[in-house]
């Protein structure tokens, strides 16, 4: 399962439902976009290390961007961006999930719901 940034943030803030979801998911994946969003929201080297430790301790595989992910994300932006407001980062996360064959776990169902081929697990904190 590929985890959207929001669930990772909920976990890091101590949310029990996010912890339960991570605990019951044996194969955990995150997009490099989510990793970068976590770094962007942190305050310095100590928090950067905490994020790296968290991903390592939970055995997350961090999916890097590829040509296929970029191509698929650009198609999503062309198709859904004008009508739904899909952001470039969400398009990249969705494309990463589809290209890696993962279900996307997210609390932001509305952001991703227009993408027909994307499998989604809804998270409610």
Descriptive report:
The chain has helices at 5-12, 16-23, 32-40, 45-57, 67-84, 88-100, 109-112; strands at residues 2-3, 29-31, 61-63, 104-106, 120-122. The strands form two sheets. Strands 1-4-5 form a three-stranded parallel sheet. The chain has 125 residues and is mainly alpha-helical. The longest helix is centred in the middle third of the chain and has 18 residues, at 67-84. β4 (104-106), α7 and β5 (120-122) form a beta-alpha-beta unit. The protein is globular, with a radius of gyration of 14 Å. It has seven helices and five strands, in the order βααβααβααβαβ. α1 crosses α2 and α5 (67-84) crosses α6. The protein is 58% helix and 11% strand. The model has no long low-confidence stretch (mean pLDDT 96). The chain has one domain: 5'-nuclease (Rossmann fold). The relative contact order is 0.21.
- Order of helix and strand elements from N to C terminus: EHHEHHEHHEHE
Low-confidence stretches: none
* SS-derived structural category: mainly alpha
Q: What is the CATH topology descriptor?
A: Rossmann fold
Provide the number of structural domains: 1
Broad CATH class = Alpha Beta
Shape: globular
Number of helices: 7
Tell me roughly what share of residues is in helical segments. 55-70%
Q: CATH homologous superfamily, by name?
A: 5'-nuclease
